[in-house]
Amino acid sequence: MTEQPILVTGATGKSGSRVVGRLRARGLPVRAAARGGEHVFDWNDSGTWDAALEGVRAVYVVQVDGTRLVRPFVERAVAHGVRRIVLASGRGIDDPDYARDSGGVRDALLDSEAAVRESGAEWTISRPGWFAQNFSEGFFADAVRAGELRLPAGDGAASWGDAEDIAAVVVAALTEDGHAGRTYELSGPRAVSSAEAVATISRVTGRDIRYVPLSVADYTAELVGQGWPPADAEAFADVIAPLRENRDAHVSDGVHRALGRPPRTFAEFAEATAAAGGWPA
């Protein structure tokens, strides 16, 4: 079994790339799969699935938001002899009021979770909230680079989770016993507002970065002014709503349950990113 590879879908993403790195650091065989990765894998082309699954013992499933492709993929994985599945899901999907979900993301995630639970394989579900890395390599990186984060987030806070912690939990579930049948809600150790997050980044980078709270109307108007279609601008404003409404401020114990240690703080994430030269210049 130790010679069989572990398949990582979404291998170029925030969590997937870190999972690949951690597995390889342990000397374990990894099949890094993505549309533009080492092993070509496209969720929307089921013809790429069999080659990715051939001979695999465990799979990290990172799905495409709003699609219902996990269920047929999991069925095929089990037919190929996959014995362990770790699913990337989302924090808050148990709460139908967590976010305005015009794209059907929540229903698709719930179906994906049901699919792995019903698969007959060992399963573990990772439910991360907002990634701290959104400031360094995600949604907000361009704003950090520009020195001004403009969001309709008010003074709301989130318990930002470090993608390194999320990857560590996934690797543990893929390679160790004791995680089967568990759902890990993942977060940082305390809630941090957008203003506090930006102040922390300013301190560790030595740059002047401001947070500017906007109304939803002003924010969507700015996005449309930048060339966004109005429907897309409104949908992205909906994504920010849980921040404004403090729906992701609660702290979850998944990192401690899975790893036996506390999650990294936002300040520790920011300092480690600065030490690695990872902040947008």
TrEMBL record:
InterPro entries: Ergot_Alk_Oxidoreductase (IPR051604), NAD(P)-bd_dom (IPR016040), NAD(P)-bd_dom_sf (IPR036291). Signal peptide: none annotated. Gene3D superfamilies: NAD(P)-binding Rossmann-like Domain, UDP-galactose 4-epimerase, domain 1. It comes from the Bacteria. It holds the Pfam family NAD_binding_10. Residues 10-176 form the NAD(P)-binding domain. PANTHER family: PRESTALK A DIFFERENTIATION PROTEIN A (PTHR43162:SF1), PTHR43162. This is NAD(P)-dependent oxidoreductase. The lineage of its organism: Bacteria, Bacillati, Actinomycetota, Actinomycetes, Kitasatosporales.
